[in-house]
Amino acid sequence: MYLSDMLGAEIKFVLFLVFVILFFGLQLVLIKRAILLSKNIEKAELKSYIPTTNQFVQFILGLLLYSLITGVVYLLCSIIGMPLLYLGVEMDKIIYEINPLLTGLIMMFVLIRISFFPFFILENNFNIIRSVKMSIAFTKGNTINLLILMVIIASAYLGQLFFEYVATVSSPKYWERLILLLLFLLSAWYWP
Q1: 3-state DSSP helix/strand/coil percent for the chain, to nearest 5?
Q2: For tag attachment on the chain, is the N or C end more exposed, with fewer CB atoms within 10 Å?
């Protein structure tokens, strides 16, 4: 191996670390800003926004824990999907459609339950295990409401993508017809 190859690998590793620290650190800074705003603190020192090293490490450990749970759930879904082979379902359909769908649905519920762990890490300086437990307790009884909120936000985003696509590929006449159709449907819906 040449010296330039080793130096290139070291530079890539340093850039990777800088990216991870800046990307996830910025997320923690935004969460800390939200916490301060919830306490009606609008102006604070810059130092109060920057998470401590322990908080940053606990946050990264939480993301790694979620990744580990995702891998375990994927393996369990693979085991559950194995009997489908004996029922005549093709292997490609199981691997590329059924297993990712099952894993995604299960992990969506897991994500909803543990999504508040960064707040407990930043607010109370809890470790990752305690903050995940607190997040699960915090979302108890509200899982369906949070799921509905997630579906509404996702559908709004998909609607935005659809209308951006329609606006770029269609003519102005098509836009006018679409708006008139939507107005007609809305007026019919509101009509007594």
Answers
A1: 85, 0, 15
A2: C
CA 182 to CA 164: how far, in whole Å?
A: 16
Q: What angle do CA 131, 36, 33 make, to 5 degrees?
A: 85
Task: Evaluate if residue 170 carries a pLDDT over 50.
Answer: yes
| Structure-derived torsion over alpha carbons of residues 148, 154, 158, 164, reported in degrees to the nearest 10 | 120
Tens of pLDDT, residue by residue over 85-97, are 889 889 889 889 8
Taking residues 127-133, report their average pLDDT.
Answer: 94
Residues in the chain: 192
Tell me how far apart the 2 most distant CA atoms of the chain are, in Å.
79
The stretch 40-59 carries a mean pLDDT of: 88
Number of helices (H) and strands (E) in the chain: give both, helices first.
8, 0
- Token reading at 107: 């992990």
Q: Per the confidence metrics, is the pTM higher than 0.70?
A: yes
Pair 146, 108: CB distance under 8 Å? no
Q: Are the CB atoms for 30 and 124 separated by under 8 Å?
A: no
